[in-house]
Amino acid sequence: MKGVKKNSIILLAITIIIVAFVLKDDFNAIMEALLKANLLILVLAFLCQIVAIMFEALAYKKVVDSYTDHYSYKSALKMQFITKFFNGITPFSTGGQPMQIYLLKKDGFRLTKATNIIMQNFILYQAALVTYGIVALVINWQWNLFPEVTLLKNLIVLGFFMNTLVMLGLIVVSFSSKFNHVMIDKIIALLAKLKIVKDKEKKQAEWSERVDDFHQGTTYLKQHKRLCFQSYLYNLIYLTLNYLMPYFVIASLLGFNNPVTPVGAICSSAYILIIGSFVPIPGASGGIEYGYLRFFGSFIKGSILKASLLIWRFISYYFLMIVGAVTFNIKGSDKKCE
What we know:
By secondary structure, the protein is mostly helical. The protein has 13 helices and no strands. It has a domain of 220 residues. 79% of the residues lie in helices and 0% in strands. The chain starts with a helix and ends in an 8-residue tail after the last helix.
């Protein structure tokens, strides 16, 4: 927990610096815009984010359902909020998945089964993410929504291909038993040469058994194609609602008759998420805000743009972090699922 406290302090310091930077040149106008925001439409923005998380939990539960009938939707929803917290306080969002495995073990899953669940869930999420990346790239290619952000668009293309490679790599690792056996044997042999591993044959046998268990789990998941498709579909809905949320934020400041369309909001959000994957700071702080200002700056300017950034960032990040932290501290264990 020391790491959590340390990262939280670092994140708080970064947040203060970013907010000060956003407010410093136009404080009065930004405050005026925030105070005049339409509260009813802001409620819609919050609801959009919450419903998105609910669909993300459904996507996750569909994967778990292929392994057990005893995992509740309530536990799946709690898991998503806790994951948001641990992703949010770690660089490159690396803390969420280890915590998911830990919580699944507490809920009665064996380590191999828990790892299978998290791996397959991530693959289906990546598939939805890549699908949206393709759609956003095609839309921007057709309509040229962001003529002023050429450098960022090049980074987006790079990020899209990186996400695609990650997804393909995970598929190979998940479903190619032969590849996994070869890699494990080579890694253990190297560690043995470096005197890190003492009994090479014993370790190879242990890890070979784990690889077989892992491959058996992924093979089992292939037999549940319908559940996989449902999970993929729920992930698409989750991303759609998540990407659409800034549309309601901006509408709360300008009304629905403004330059930002739902398509523009979705494409901008998809690109911002990819930009964030390049930033090695908890919550991708700094990069996310910069991406927002550049992409949504193609539609709106000045104090309204900065006010919308503050609201959007609170709803999409800090609000989820707060809920996740509270959920983590009150989470109870589900029934045993071994």
